[in-house]
Amino acid sequence: MTPNPTESLIQLDTSSLVDKVEANLVKLLVERKLRVGDIIPTELDLSRSLGVSRTVVREALLRLRMMGLIDTKKKKGSVITSPDIFGIMSKSMNPHILDQDTLREIFELRLVLEIGMADLLFQRITPKDIEELKEIVKTEPDTAKDHIFHIDHEIIFHGKLYEIAGNETLKRFQKMLLPIFDYVHNSGLLKKPAQIQKFVSHKGLIDILENGSPELFRNGMRNHLENHFLRIFS
Amino acid sequence: MTPNPTESLIQLDTSSLVDKVEANLVKLLVERKLRVGDIIPTELDLSRSLGVSRTVVREALLRLRMMGLIDTKKKKGSVITSPDIFGIMSKSMNPHILDQDTLREIFELRLVLEIGMADLLFQRITPKDIEELKEIVKTEPDTAKDHIFHIDHEIIFHGKLYEIAGNETLKRFQKMLLPIFDYVHNSGLLKKPAQIQKFVSHKGLIDILENGSPELFRNGMRNHLENHFLRIFS
DNA sequence: TTTAGCATTATGTATAACATAATAAGACTA
DNA sequence: TAGTCTTATTATGTTATACATAATGCTAAA
């Protein structure tokens, strides 16, 4: 084997100043174990102690802000906030910008989530939740009648399920994906037309939640989402 | 009911200049339907045509860059790139920064994903994948022997499953969450100690993939992850 | 004691200047 | 003519300075 001439070269540091300052600040947050609500030094202070211009500090702080690590107020300075994982993500979640493959994949993700969360549902569902679900299906519109309203209703029902799952991160994930689902539904990305008839209805799912098991629910939901699966896998 | 005195007040626009420029640029990208690789005007041009300082334009561009919408090179200017949804997200995914509740929730998310992706697996798995999985379990270490190595092996096996699922977005999601899983495992966040014995082994899962059904796999995986569930729900 | 107004302070914005890296153009040589 | 080296150009990266603006806290007047 011929020796690779680039082998002995060290990796050059091509990162910009802002990159370094950003890394520095994150390191500071981690190592100092700063708690939510703590304030960090002002831009001018940081600029002085780090030996870079205020502009660079500002850009680094902007990044932290976008990551949801800090919230900066006038006069006060920047305070540490509970990081918002999905904050930025949802901003770049513009369906018009994402390419079709990604859209299809995100749509698949929904199916994965709703089938996979059965255990969480059964662990945390309360009688009150059951009542609320029943209330929701009571106002269920006729499938064939009003398509738009039907989609809205779908969102309400399934949204309630996410709520019951009691996982805030999961719920926010869904909330972020919602516009995508909507977009995919209306975009013609799904090949086959939706079948009107559902095998397992919303009402059926509630029955399972009340008297069944996670296993039954997974199959029920799988069945309920059958249409979507068929449309994706065509 | 007494009338609300604030009712007739219009919502003030508290957004900063940078906010507006950012929105403007995103709108530009969407409406012009610009394709990946297209270049957008230089900072100075934008600053002139938008009537704001270059500073503001720079900050707005920085945000777009963080969203993965553009990639800016010296001299060339900024070019549009395929948005990287998880790019920024993974940067703020520092386990040391996330609070414990969020960590627990993200860990739950893993369980949801791996149970929920059964259908994708069965749709896309190939004989070659089965072989590779078998190859992986062949080198499976003794559970009781080397704990660290055992975790590594877990990651390899389950990572392969994500790969088989054939959903790039899902895979990258998992990749992003990996450090979290690792951290949670080692952090003492999980209450009960792990049980050594697994009901359904990796080998068992492979058998199901080869001869079983999605339904069987979901239950198998549910069983396989039983330990994790118990530790979370305590 | 309350409130109106002022001072203070840190971020937001603007401008100008220079550094640096990537590209293009031109000149020079084989 | 082709190829390479040098130089010029251009757009981003960085610095410095100044002023605007909003939030906070203090002070004095009612």
Automatic annotation (TrEMBL), chains A, B:
<dbReference type="InterPro" id="IPR036388">
    <property type="entry name" value="WH-like_DNA-bd_sf"/>
</dbReference>
<dbReference type="InterPro" id="IPR036390">
    <property type="entry name" value="WH_DNA-bd_sf"/>
</dbReference>
<dbReference type="InterPro" id="IPR000524">
    <property type="entry name" value="Tscrpt_reg_HTH_GntR"/>
</dbReference>
<dbReference type="InterPro" id="IPR008920">
    <property type="entry name" value="TF_FadR/GntR_C"/>
</dbReference>
<dbReference type="Pfam" id="PF07729">
    <property type="entry name" value="FCD"/>
</dbReference>
<dbReference type="InterPro" id="IPR011711">
    <property type="entry name" value="GntR_C"/>
</dbReference>
<protein>
    <submittedName>
        <fullName>FCD domain-containing protein</fullName>
    </submittedName>
</protein>
<dbReference type="Pfam" id="PF00392">
    <property type="entry name" value="GntR"/>
</dbReference>
<keyword id="KW-0805">Transcription regulation</keyword>
<feature type="domain" description="HTH gntR-type">
    <location>
        <begin position="15"/>
        <end position="83"/>
    </location>
</feature>
<keyword id="KW-0238">DNA-binding</keyword>
<keyword id="KW-0804">Transcription</keyword>
